[in-house]
Amino acid sequence: MEERASIWGRSEDKIFETALVKYAQGTPNRWAKIADLLPLKTALQVETHYHILMSDVADIEAGLIPLPDYTESADKKKNKIKEARKPATQWTAGEHKRFLEGLNKYGKGDWKSIARQCVKTRSATQVASHAQKYFIHLDKDVKNKKRSSIYDVSLE
């Protein structure tokens, strides 16, 4: 009875499954060879684990145990990720000014340094996104604009 109740970890199961392929049915001393790969398991525990596995497989194939619906759980995880996203917040004039100072100091492309040293309230990804929008704004024709923008603020 004690042999049946042994607890198997995921790493032990992986070693066991690999060993089942390596030491196929009919291999002499199969259970002892597999047990040699699992220092905390005896040959009897390995054999018992195999019979439990075969019983579980038979139950699954007979339709006694329903297969898990992995697509449903994956969809739930996707929804949780979408729900956890924070709404975008506008950049303040102060943040933009610090962004421009960082741009002068660290140059175009070093968004990580600008975020860490100058605009500490924003991540490097947010700084890069802001920079992309800023440079697009600089290239636009300013004459045809309807309203002012945070990107109009300069250090001068």
From TrEMBL:
NCBIfam families given in the database record: myb_SHAQKYF (TIGR01557)
A Pfam match: Myb_DNA-binding
Protein name: Uncharacterized protein
Gene3D superfamilies: Homeodomain-like
Domain HTH myb-type: 91-139
Major place of residence: nucleus
SMART domains documented for this protein: SANT
Species this chain originates from: Cuscuta epithymum
TM helices/strands, residue ranges: none
Record key words, sorted: Developmental protein, DNA-binding, Nucleus, Transcription, Transcription regulation
Nucleus is among the record's keywords: yes
Localization in the cell: Nucleus
